[in-house]
């Protein structure tokens, strides 16, 4: 399946799958090393004699609803529209499945944060209304006005975190080695990020998020990356480290399933 612009009322539920989490809409990062990525076991279907209360949704239905919710929230972000619990329940949950809303919203939130670099923020607890904002306080999402595309802030946050893991400076080879664990490769077109090499060596350098310089004394010449001035202005090292550790404890590479 190819990602394209969904219509407001008909998200494509099979395009996405979210990593598993037990947290609510604002998940806290957990420990792990970048590249130590493991796919959690999804919920399985109920056995013939099990009550529905023990297994409200079979695996396929659970992940289909999560994927549909992710695409719906991406569309809301692109259109700069808020949403609410009531709207999501009305669109995606029949009455007998409404108790599953917190778990599915949690799964969707993890996927949006790790794969797309978007945080789901509850802005009005009394109304249960939500907006989506780029992670870490970053203001770049890579989405071009008037064109269909997907937010790319998640990859930027990961690279900024990798730099921190290497004491503020990481070689280009180490970046690609780490990104390989997430299914991102130099020269390989990615369903979300497009051409990642262009982002790393061109776009983010021009935007001021990264500084790219030649390693002193290297022969043949090798390059390394540091935080750029815009990264220091918009976020901080603690947030960057928290994000990369969260990515390391989840499965970013498997959060998008064709």
Automatic annotation (TrEMBL):
Pfam family name, one:
MAGE
Q: Specify residue ranges for compositional bias: Low complexity.
A: 10-31
Write the protein's name.
(raccoon dog) hypothetical protein
Q: Tell me which domain of life the UniProt entry assigns to the organism this sequence originates from.
A: Eukaryota
> What are its GO biological-process terms?
negative regulation of transcription by RNA polymerase II
Q: State the InterPro entries in the record.
A: MAGE, MAGE_WH1, MAGE_WH2, MHD_dom
Instruction: List the PROSITE patterns hit by this protein, alphabetically.
Output: MAGE (PS50838)
**Region of interest: Disordered:** 1-53
| Ranges for domain MAGE | 62-251
The Gene Ontology CC terms held by the record are: nucleus
């Amino acid at each position: 399946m190819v990602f394209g612009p969904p219509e407001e009322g008909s998200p494509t539920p099979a395009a996405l799958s979210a990593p598993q989490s037990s947290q609510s809409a604002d998940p806290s990062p957990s420990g792990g090393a970048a590249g130590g990525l493991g796919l959690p076991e999804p919920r399985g279907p109920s056995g013939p004699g099990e009550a529905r209360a023990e297994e409200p949704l079979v695996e396929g239905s659970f992940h289909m609803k999560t994927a549909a919710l992710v695409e719906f929230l991406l569309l809301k972000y692109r259109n700069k529209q808020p949403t609410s619990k009531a709207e999501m329940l009305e669109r995606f949950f029949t009455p007998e499945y409404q108790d599953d809303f917190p778990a599915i919203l949690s799964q969707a939130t993890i996927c949006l944060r790790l794969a797309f670099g978007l945080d789901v923020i509850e802005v009005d607890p009394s109304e249960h209304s939500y907006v989506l904002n780029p992670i870490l306080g970053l203001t770049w999402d890579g989405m071009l006005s008037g064109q269909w595309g997907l937010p790319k802030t998640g990859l930027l946050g990961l690279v900024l975190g990798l730099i921190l893991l290497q004491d503020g400076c990481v070689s280009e080879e180490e970046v690609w080695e780490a990104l390989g664990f997430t299914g991102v490769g130099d020269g390989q077109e990615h369903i979300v990020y497009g051409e990642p090499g262009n982002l790393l060596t061109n776009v983010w350098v021009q935007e001021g998020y990264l500084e790219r310089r030649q390693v002193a004394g290297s022969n043949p010449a090798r390059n390394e990356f540091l935080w750029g001035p815009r990264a220091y202005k918009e976020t901080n090292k603690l947030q960057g480290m928290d994000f990369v550790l969260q990515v390391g404890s989840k499965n970013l590479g498997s959060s998008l399933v064709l």
